[in-house]
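Input (structure):
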């Protein structure tokens, strides 16, 4: 009989890679449990499984994830586009006019990566980095309207880093803490002032793992999801009802129903709330009443009703196709020099369909095999 040797680092690396899917203002699967129907990637052993530890007395630790969640994402490339839509702005201060036009382009490029820094059964640390760029183009160039001329073909960028702490307490309870810092605005490398563009958000969740198919938690998020910087309650609810259907939610920011067509193909449907906050340095100073502004705070909040398909291409490489309908709740400019953050331009972006394409890298199966 041949003796099989396994390098000690493989098991550790497997656990690290399984933890790499923790995302930005939403929480994703961190571990898996073997379901009746195999789901990729294979999960950590259950309490009755002694194949990895050699003992059924090894302590088990709870995580927020449940059976059936898709593969953990380590590196993500995402591109999104919205077709032509109407834009209408109303001046909210004396001296500012109204304007109506069409946006011929609204595109977003997103690149994210997650690096496991520590992966003990009772403590996991994950470092995340992200780069995002949003662009607008309008039908009339220049529009003659201060806000639009200052974001026309001008990249609104977000460069960020986050640290997530996942702390399983025992076989039932867990908690998660995340802090994230981002530089958001129209800056360039030559004119970047960190204090002007820095945005910090955080969240804390405490939860209960009731079974391999049901985990839930409550907490608070502090950030820009709903426009202005503010705290709001959060409810995490992950549940798999059978071998096909499940739900993944971080309410009120995101609720998604999941359908497992196969271990290599998953479908999702639901909604998400996305909030962005940019600092825009004006090419031409904006004058209203008795004030002259050299920069604006632009708050963008939208609700997306979406369907999504994720499919394996080859082993570690997957793609995602997403489409749906975007409802814009706010696209407003504020006087950031005023402590009250007075709104000076109220804009409405017309609702419109959107589509996105995504490539993402997941742990290769050779790191997941036992």
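Output (sequence):
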């Amino acid at each position: 009989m041949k003796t099989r040797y396994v390098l000690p680092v493989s098991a550790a690396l497997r656990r690290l890679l399984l933890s790499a899917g923790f995302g930005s203002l939403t929480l994703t699967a961190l571990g898996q449990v073997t379901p009746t129907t195999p789901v990729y990637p294979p999960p950590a052993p259950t309490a009755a499984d002694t194949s990895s530890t050699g003992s059924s007395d090894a302590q088990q630790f709870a995580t927020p994830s449940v059976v059936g969640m898709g593969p953990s994402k380590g590196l993500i490339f995402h591109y999104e586009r919205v077709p032509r839509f109407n834009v209408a702005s109303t001046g909210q201060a004396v001296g500012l006019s109204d304007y109506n036009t069409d946006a011929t382009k609204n595109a977003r490029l997103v690149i994210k990566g997650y690096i496991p820094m520590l992966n003990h059964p009772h403590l996991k640390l994950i470092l995340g980095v992200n780069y995002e760029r949003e662009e607008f183009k309008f039908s009339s160039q220049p529009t003659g309207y201060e806000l639009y001329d200052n974001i026309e073909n001008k990249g609104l960028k977000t460069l960020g880093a986050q640290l997530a702490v996942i702390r399983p307490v025992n076989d039932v309870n867990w908690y998660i803490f995340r802090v994230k810092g981002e530089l958001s605005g129209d800056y360039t490398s030559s004119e970047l002032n960190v204090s002007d563009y820095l945005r910090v958000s955080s969240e804390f969740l405490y939860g209960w793992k009731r079974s391999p198919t049901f985990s839930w938690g409550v907490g608070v998020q502090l950030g820009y999801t709903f426009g202005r910087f503010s705290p709001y309650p959060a409810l995490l609810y992950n549940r798999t009802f059978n071998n096909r259907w499940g739900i993944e939610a971080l309410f009120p920011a995101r609720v998604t129903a999941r359908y497992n067509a196969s271990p290599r193909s998953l479908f999702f449907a639901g909604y998400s709330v996305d909030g962005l906050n940019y600092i825009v340095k004006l090419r031409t100073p904006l004058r209203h009443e008795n004030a002259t502004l050299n920069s604006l705070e632009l708050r963008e909040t939208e609700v997306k009703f979406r369907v999504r398909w994720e499919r394996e291409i080859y082993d570690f490489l997957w793609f995602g196709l997403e489409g749906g309908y975007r409802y814009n709740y706010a696209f407003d400019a504020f006087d950031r020099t005023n402590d009250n953050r007075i709104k000076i331009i109220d804009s409405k972006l017309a609702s419109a369909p959107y589509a996105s394409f995504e490539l993402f890298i997941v742990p290769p199966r050779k790191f997941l095999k036992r």
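Notes: Residues 1-58 have pLDDT under 50 and may be disordered. The first strand starts at residue 75 and ends at 82.
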